[in-house]
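re: ur question from earlier - yeah i can do the single chain one, its not a big deal. heres the input i used so u can compare w yours
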Amino acid sequence: MSKSQLVKLYRQAVAAGLPVDVVHSKIQTFIERSQITLTVEEQNDKKQLQKLQRRLPLKTRIIVHVLPVFCVTLGLFLVSNAVWPILSYFVFTSPDLMGENMLSPVPEDSVLTAERTLVNQVQARGNEEAGEAVAEAPVILAEDLDYTNLSNWFPDITPEQQEQLNNTPEEGQLKEYILDIPAVNVEEARVKVGGSDLDKSLIQYPGTALPGEPGSPVIFGHSVLRQFYNPSLKNPRRYTSIFSKIMTLKQGDKIYLTANGIKYTYVVEAKAEVKPTDTFILEQNYDASQLKLVTCVPEGTFLRRGVIVARLEGHN
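and the output i got, formated as tokens:
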């Protein structure tokens, strides 16, 4: 019974000449009986529900009670499984990276401005020759990029660089060699000089130094979420995850390149993180013999590029 109903009932009783205490006593008795009735009804409903549950098969009862908990637990596990590797990269791996990024000797704003000016001039000239108006709207790519194709790693790759990437070594030149990284269980990984298919092998960017030579071989490899890391020789898809853990390498860890029967030993010196547009990782310093390993970071994403820098220690 609502408050307004009680007030109305009191008014009616007083208007009829009934004593207030009598009215109050009767209403109180009515409320108590109503509560008892409700309690009895609730108990009966509960007993009825228990009877129905007992009639259900054991498997059905287990599913009804366990399935919601299982679904919630599974959802939390899947979310944490995807988020934790990325968080752990930022918490444990990223702070150890070199403080300085590999930067262009020319300020990036100047480079971008010059590139845009040159592109606009070329487009305008082509449109004028064709008798068309100059279109300044940017071109938007609708399709998702395939990052097992190395050429998609460089947003601003030029036709000349694309052609260089697809070039194969000439006859008599080194076309392929082997990479081993014991610290992350990578063994006998094929490194192909040139090409763009990271699904089949690691790729050394063409034009960079060969193993043992002054300069730096720059080797690219794919990464996925760390829980899917499987560099085993028995895994036919090993190259899709083979560089997932290279950013966990520490100073002093060994990397081995075997080419033409000679095994070169490199020692990790530093780690760095660069933007996808920073192609300066390809630059060669011929005053030293180094090695650069490049992958996407955090693993399983394409936000930035992680670079391992190692120096040549010796060969046998």
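The chain has three domains: 3-55, 58-96, 146-315. not sure if urs matches, ping me
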